[in-house]
Design goal:
Cofactor: Mg(2+)
EC number: 5.1.1.-
Number of strands: 14
Family: Belongs to the mandelate racemase/muconate lactonizing enzyme family.
Pfam family, one: MR_MLE_N
GO molecular function, one term: magnesium ion binding
């Protein structure tokens, strides 16, 4: 019988600060857990979805409570007994890892995914004054990142993107409004951004107000992030978005994320596999799912001052297994 071995909250410092429209972070708390079958041990990590009210302490409590229930600790049963979110993600990841240890088979085989290869990942340019974002983009380009993701907030955003384009003239660009474009003329904005070489816009409107995008003649595709957590959300977002950002912390683990990816592609949507701020342990399952994605945004560990030992390598904009 599989049992919870340990669960705890861990804190990791951000390299500088991570700034989006909802605020700034200088460190990130994650929930870490281990499960065991008595012989092997599997480990997993989750980052709380703070805009959903999650905290690392609450996630740790939820994992501990689930482990004390008189139910089998399996991935399938987690889908029945836990809400999506970081707590379920951490447990789900630990159970996948336990199966890897117990069977000797790699995760990609167990999950029915392609054998992993190095991938181009986006690198996040935090929300800031245009000149600061230009300097940050120049530094990222110098490190070899060919794809930059710009955090915006609905104020002077064209100035910010134009400044980044000067700092990184050859980079591919994605912009992420994090629900902040309620007052923005989307048709005008998307046309201007296309001229600046932007290829995708994440979550322009607040989750729950997807109908605001109906009838918009956008020059660029919209990608649902906060609006899409699990497979059941696809029917709601497919009419107004052209892509979805799959994050394991939102989905509640790789098990649900696989269902979400399949549902999105069945509706003709493109996929991005993204992440919260996290260590390499937190994005390990996501890296395997990202082998099937149109965009990859797994720079969480690269934004920390120090990652876990044996983590992913980030070189010239490429993420690869360490």
């Amino acid at each position: 019988m599989i049992k919870l071995k340990t669960v705890r909250v861990e804190r990791f410092a951000v390299d500088g600060s991570f700034i989006i429209s909802r605020g700034a972070k200088t460190d990130v708390d994650v929930v870490y857990c281990e499960v065991t079958d008595g012989t092997h041990v599997g480990c997993g990590e989750g980052t709380p979805i703070y805009y959903e009210g999650e905290t690392a302490d609450l996630c740790a409590e939820a994992i501990d409570m689930r482990a004390k229930q008189n139910r089998p600790l399996t991935r399938e049963d987690l889908l029945k007994t836990m809400m999506e979110g970081a707590a379920r993600n951490a447990l789900d990841a630990a159970l996948w890892d336990l199966e890897v240890q117990a069977t000797g088979k790699p995760l990609w085989q167990l999950a029915g995914l392609p054998q992993p290869k190095p991938l181009v990942t986006a690198y996040t340019i935090s929300l800031n004054e245009p000149e600061v974002m230009k300097a940050d983009a120049r530094k990222a380009a110098a490190k070899g990142y060919p794809l930059l993701k710009l955090k915006l907030n609905g104020e002077d955003d064209l100035m910010r993107v134009a400044a980044v384009r000067v700092g990184a003239p050859d980079a591919r660009l994605i912009v992420d409004a994090n629900e902040a474009w309620e007052e923005v003329d989307l048709e005008e904005m998307t046309g201007a951004l296309k001229k600046l070489g932007v290829e995708l816009i994440e979550q322009p409107v607040e989750a729950g107000f997807e109908e605001d995008l109906e009838g918009i003649e956008s020059a660029l595709p919209f990608c649902a992030d906060e609006s899409c957590h699990v497979a059941e959300d696809i029917d709601r977002v497919a009419a107004t978005f052209q892509a979805v950002n799959i994050k394991l912390d939102k989905a509640g683990g790789l098990t649900e994320a696989l269902r979400l990816s399949e549902a999105a592609k069945a509706r003709g949507l493109k996929t991005m596999v993204g992440c919260m701020l996290s260590t390499s342990l937190g994005i390990r399952p996501a890296f395997h799912l990202a082998q099937t994605a149109d965009w990859v945004d797994l720079d969480g560990p690269a934004l920390l001052k120090k990652d876990r030992a044996g983590g992913f390598r980030f070189e010239n904009g490429i993420i690869s297994l360490g």
